[in-house]
Amino acid sequence: MTAKEFLSRNRIEYAERDIFSDPEARGEWRALGFTGAPAVQLGDRRLEFFHLEQLREFLGLPVEPALTSFRALAAAHHRVLEAMERALCAVPPAHFRTPTRNRGRDLTELLFNVHEGTALMAEALAGGRFLWDAQRDAERSRQLTTADSLAQFCRTAREQWWARAAQVDIEDALATVEVEVNGERGRLTNLQILEKHAFQAAYYLRHVYAFLRQFGVEPGGELTEAEMAPIRLPSEIY
What we know:
mainly alpha
């Protein structure tokens, strides 16, 4: 969505000036102290902006409910991913490849699955497609042979997704994405994809906590249900 479309959608009247084709407009733009575009003036207030959410805030417009939901879920998902990385550091080296109760998958498969899906969410936000052959996750996870290499993979996936998710506007949140998972196709919004994946990640985090306790390790910085909100989990762990 362009700035003009945003203003029109919110029924805000404006006067457009093209600094690239109109020398007079360019002179006014410089006189106002602007150095970049797009830029907007409202009374004595001025703003150069790079994202429509900056313009929304400048104009005092309320945040759309769907965008609030996306942001809250994204923040919770980020907390869950950070907690997974902390838990990984606490796993006894001798049990790095020990199967968990999550379908017999070890921690490498479990965390690879969660973070691969997270990386694909970033691609969906950027390109409108979420394509995941999750059946190959077990094979691909074998490339991560140490806890350090797995931790680096997880951290990179989390940081790259979070950098993109932090910029999401309402159009991004509600944009329809082409989805194909294990050959099954459909269409979902970015918000719906996040809802599904954030639930899965939080559910798996509890499996990781249970796994640690099998070996007498209490998870440090364990996330509570309140800290996982608005992600809602069932009472049973498995």
